[in-house]
Design goal:
The chain is 44% helix and 0% strand. The protein is globular. The chain is an all-alpha fold. The structure holds iron/sulfur cluster.
Length: 81
């Protein structure tokens, strides 16, 4: 697993509203996803979320359902390797 978390220093969500990345049930993820799309470390963030199995919140512009799918797919790939 990649343990380099230096990308966090440039995380745009840290300069906006980090709570927006954890919307309550029925809440909207749209503002968080918009922030992610403008974030300079989006790729590193998403890769971290997948490798670390971050199943909650919006990471790298990806919502929880899609993130869980990506995590499962990565684990299946690793199990097959
Ligand atoms: S991609 Fe989104 S969640 Fe990740 S660091 Fe950037 S703003 Fe935060």
């Amino acid at each position: 697993m990649n343990t380099d978390l230096s990308w966090r220093a440039d995380a745009l969500c840290a300069q906006t509203d980090p709570e927006a990345h954890y919307p309550e049930a029925g809440g909207t993820a749209a503002p968080a996803k918009r922030t992610c799309m403008a974030c300079p470390v989006r790729r590193a963030c998403l890769e971290h979320a997948i490798t670390a199995g971050e199943e909650y919140g919006i990471w790298g512009g990806v919502g929880q359902q899609e993130l869980r799918r990506l995590i499962r797919a990565r684990r299946a790939e690793q199990a097959a390797a």
